[in-house]
Amino acid sequence: MEYGVGYFPTHDGIGPGALARQLEERGQDALFFAEHTHIPASRESPWSGGAELPRKYWHCYDLFVALTAAAEATTRLRVGSGVCLVVERDPITTAKEVASVDHLSGGRLEFGVGAGWNREEMANHGTDPRTRMALLGERVQAMQAIWTQDEASYAGRFVNFDRIWSWPKPAQQPYPPVLVGGGGPTVLDRVLAWGDGWFPQWHDDDLFERIAQLQARADRPIEVQVLSVPPDPKALEQLEHAGVRRASCWLPSGPWSVVEEALQRWEQAIAKLTGR
Questions:
Q1: How many domains, the chain?
Q2: Which residues contact 113 (CB under 8 A, 6 or more apart)?
Q3: Pairing of strands 178-181, 30-33
Q4: Domain range holding 181?
C-alpha cells in the first residue's frame, strides 16, 4: 500500500511547491490539494465537520496553480486533486488544465473529482444542486472524450460540443486516473460507469463493506484510495487488508512547523505498520 497526504494550499501557509519537496524527500507517494473557488458568506449548507467552517476553505490558491507548483518542485511525487469540483468548472477549460499539468509533470497527475457539499457555492457557478450528479458525470465523460479524441465531440443533456481540437493530450494513457470522490448511496454506480477508482473518506459510512461491494461488482480493475485516514497503524492495517491502493491523511494548513508536527505523526503510524 502507498501513502500520501491531503492539504488545503492556503496563501498564508507553507507553499505548495515547498510542501511537495518536503514530502518527496521524506518518502511520501502523493499529495492531494483541496479545491474551493470561494465560500458564500451567507452559507446555509451544513459542513460535516461541525458548525463553524475553518477559514482555510476560502483562503486556498487555485487548484491547478497549486498543482503546477507542486509538480515543478518534484520529480517523483504524484500530485492530485482531492477533489476537483467539476460541477463548478467549464469542462473544456478543465480538460485543458488537467492535460497541461499531466503533460508538464511527466504523467504524475491523479484527478480526483466530486460534486461537493456546498449548495450555495455551486449555485453561484450556475449549477442546480438537484442535477449536480448528472452534470458531474457528463462533464467528466466530455473531458475523457477531449483527452482521447483528435476531434472530440460530446452530446448530452448538460454538455454539448461538436468536433473540437484541444492539445496537449495527457501524458498518461488514456488519461490521468479519474478517482470518484463521495460516499453517497449512488457513488459506486458513478465509479463503475466512468471512473478509474473510488476516493472515499475514512469516515464515510460502511467503508469496508462498500469496498467489498465495489470489488464484487467490477468487471475491470478499479482501485480504491482513502482520504482523511487517521495516523493510526490499526487503521492503516485495515485498509491494507481491504486491498486499498493508497491511504492519505489530511495535514493542517499553516507554516512548516505546524505541518511537520502532523506529518511526523503520520510517518510514525506508517513506520509502526511497515517496520521501516
A1: 1
A2: 81, 83, 84, 86, 136, 140, 178, 179, 180, 181
A3: unpaired
A4: 2-274
Where on the phi/psi map is residue 9: left (φ > 0), alpha (ψ -120 to 50), or beta?
A: beta
What pLDDT is attached to residue 43?
A: 84
What is the percent of the chain with per-residue pLDDT over 70, rounded to a whole number?
A: 100
Alpha-carbon distance of 81 to 41, in angstroms, equals: 24
Residues 6+ apart with CB under 8 A from 261: none
- Residue owning grid cell 507517494: 29
In total, the chain counts a number of residues equal to 276
Using only the alpha carbons of the chain, give its radius of gyration. 18
The CATH number of the domain holding residue 83 is: 3.20.20.30
What is the C-alpha separation between 136 and 91, in angstroms, rounded? 10
Neighbour count for residue 157 (Cβ, 10 Å): 9
Amino acid (one-letter) located at 206: D
Which one-letter amino acid corresponds to residue 97?
A: E
User: Quick one: pLDDT at residue 243?
Assistant: 97
